[in-house]
């Protein structure tokens, strides 16, 4: 296991955090965690750097060890739409591009200095086929990703701006201090002025 | 296997269809398919009947053998919002209620006479723990459910009414003839008049 630590540049606190994250869903032996670790590499990014840019041909998936990111869809008139924010202990990517092995249509940019563990689609497949309990892990992550997206669809259709803002505050209380108001407004689909009114 | 067919009221064409559906993702032996079948029951519903009603305490998940359904969120002012349509070969439920074992906040209603295979969350857990390849099956379904929801979020934020309508036509060409225009308008988040203009 020591050689793997060196190989992948996994520091001990990061290993513990990552293992704890996985073991919330599936318990792992030391050998299994070593096998899992082999599929990931550590990467560090500075604020404003991109992990994914629209048009990228090879898209990775990221587990966020520390930091904060925005996943953005830019429309034909170059307007940015915030699809999601991602912080510590979250997984993020342009998952359509990742799973269908197509070009990125979104970008993933650091709002803070960020440290991630990253893996390719090939790594994902090898990990799932080599250790079946990781399928259970990713099943739980995909299921709750789906539920979260569906709740967002419902809130965008049926909730007022005020209700959407209150839901955001309740779901992500720690993010309010870390994200510029203009980005929260974009995520909620309201103007900067409306958000000021809601948050005053 | 014969006894299971009788037990669960599975007719042969339905069995073949269901098995083919699963085997698009994971191949099954006869014994495995028999094990899978044990977790499902056949149910038939008439147009306008509800498979789930808001407030239901025990929510099932459904594989649609034939027919058409709408998944609806009703807001506090009793306005209906179409979260999704579901037709043959699709899985549908109030999945938040299903996976978190909480009361239904949505309703699922037949737009046509509908035949489904249904299973409980207990069945889902037993099926996954008893036959690990079904975890792979549900992982693929959950992943593509997540991707589809995320595409819908992006289209509601970044696409015009016209683009959303064209995307719907492209994705679900067969549904246009089967669904009342007023429901398509609700799904797309446009007025009935706007939809008439778009589809003329």
From TrEMBL, chains A, B:
Residues 43-129 form the Cyclic nucleotide-binding domain. Gene3D superfamilies: Jelly Rolls. InterPro entries: cNMP-bd_dom, cNMP-bd_dom_sf, RmlC-like_jellyroll. Pfam families: cNMP_binding. This is Cyclic nucleotide-binding protein.
